[in-house]
């Protein structure tokens, strides 16, 4: 494994260019050893562009969630280098990695992970409260307006619909103004209407707030909200699509499945 480095010369960039929001070089993640070794990611190179919405798709076992977890610093790697902004995170000590995730990364998962005894506003500001940081009031107001929660801030989770609860989770991820937000099937527990609401707010956060979002999904409709779709198979990025539509993503997945079964 590579060693920690927070001020290293970035090997990805010609002089003076801005670093991607996150990236990996020759990223490999394997489980087990010898005959039982399973390679989840195989020498992956990827750049996540700033201010863009990227979806990651692939069949079960393709490595899509593993890639997201490694990029987000939630999982260790077997070899390779990962950067969040201009900071290399591979090899960071636990305390440094925890601080980086707290300050630079937001997370949205299928489970809303809201505290039932707190109001929507208290849930949104909770990570900053724990870190002893005061929220930027102007930014917080903008986030709340973007996700449409201005009239729900005093409500507790049990008083909110599933879609509204997930919007609280989205606002919580946005409120700390992270460099990048990772979503693991963030609409997986929602009905189609609530899912569309959340995806619309994620899209607006990119367009109106300049947020960077990476989302793992199996749903072509969800992927159509992204600027770019990465397709994984057997731990390798095999294709990508820009300006996707639900139909174009579905057709690509069908062609991909056909190749796997032929």
Describe this structure in words.
The protein is an alpha/beta fold and 262 residues long. It has a single domain, classed as 3-Layer(aba) Sandwich (Rossmann fold). The protein is 35% helix and 23% strand. It contains eight helices and ten strands. The chain has a six-stranded mixed sheet, sandwiched between helices.
Estimated radius of gyration = 19 Å
Structural class: alpha/beta
Neighbour order of strands in the largest sheet:
6-7-8-3-9-10
Topology as a string of helices (H) and strands (E):
EEEHEEHEHHHEHEHEEH
Hey, roughly how much beta strand do the residues contain? Answer: 15-25%
- Reading off the top of the CATH hierarchy, the class is best stated as Alpha Beta
- Name the overall outline: globular
Segments where pLDDT lies below 50 for 5+ residues?
1-8
CATH superfamily: P-loop containing nucleotide triphosphate hydrolases
Mean pLDDT: 87
Q: Write down how many β-strands occur, each being a DSSP E stretch of 2 or more residues.
A: 10
- CATH topological fold name: Rossmann fold
CATH architecture: 3-Layer(aba) Sandwich
Discrete helix count: 8
Major β-sheet annotation = 6 strands, mixed
The number of domains is 1
Helix content: 25-40%
Distance between the termini: 38 Å
